[in-house]
Amino acid sequence: MKKIGITGVMGAGKSSVIEMLKNAGYHVLDCDRINDELLMKGHAGYQALIAEFKDTICDAQGDVDRMKMSVLMFQEAGNKEKIEAILHPLIQARLQQELEQLQQETLVFVEVPLLYEVGWESCFDEVWVVAADEELLLKRLQQHRHVAKAEAKARLRKQLPQAVKVEKADRVLWNNGDKEELQSNIYAILKEAEGF
Ligand SMILES: CC(C)(COP(=O)(O)OP(=O)(O)OC[C@H]1O[C@@H](n2cnc3c(N)ncnc32)[C@H](O)[C@@H]1O)[C@@H](O)C(=O)NCCC(=O)NCCS
Ligand SMILES: Nc1ncnc2c1ncn2[C@@H]1O[C@H](COP(=O)(O)OP(=O)(O)OP(=O)(O)O)[C@@H](O)[C@H]1O
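^ Those are the sequences you sent over. The predicted structure of the assembly is below.
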């Protein structure tokens, strides 16, 4: 089985690519979904975070409050490392379990939005970066996500720059056209990848 990590900046088209791969019959997994499950009340990530941070990351119902967790993670030195040290081994273990169920597949795709930021290149046989020209990215974020241009730019600045991701990628899936063009770029890259 070849494991392919799919990444790229916010709005580049990762979910669109994953959807197209799924529709073409490939198996796809999603690290954000695994993280969301781990953070559910009572689940392993939740329990481990509560043991470290008590209820400072919870809302009144005792569920994880993502805003509070983000503030804790990004505004107090050392917490990002602590949270990652708790969650990342759990996410990787869960991913491993899910991959084991798919051992007979030739190719499996895993969406990892922050793959390079968290340094998970070695978990995959190849990393594909979905990318689009910055003006187009900003336009799509404004049109489809209703995010103001300045806010979209600010959020993009928080991630590793797209140019760096493109440089690190094993393959780049450009998404500068319509969805039909994206679909044919996927078929082209699949043809190359299935031959490796
Ligand atoms: C802090 C959390 C709860 C915020 O969730 P929320 O749904 O509000 O936002 P989202 O997940 O889209 O993250 C928002 C932005 O935060 C930044 N961010 C989040 N986690 C990280 C990280 N580990 N390293 C760097 N930036 C990060 C990114 O710029 C991202 O675009 C969530 O991101 C989280 O649980 N992060 C820790 C787990 C993790 O490292 N995930 C990434 C690997 S799967
Ligand atoms: N080629 C395209 N033509 C038109 N719209 C597109 C194209 N690719 C993506 N979009 C639209 O742009 C938006 C962002 O795409 P998508 O959700 O796939 O990106 P993403 O990388 O998964 O973003 P995020 O990391 O923020 O979840 C969506 O509304 C999607 O439908």
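The chain has ten helices and five strands. The chain has two domains: 1-26+107-196, 38-104.

Shout if you want it in another format.
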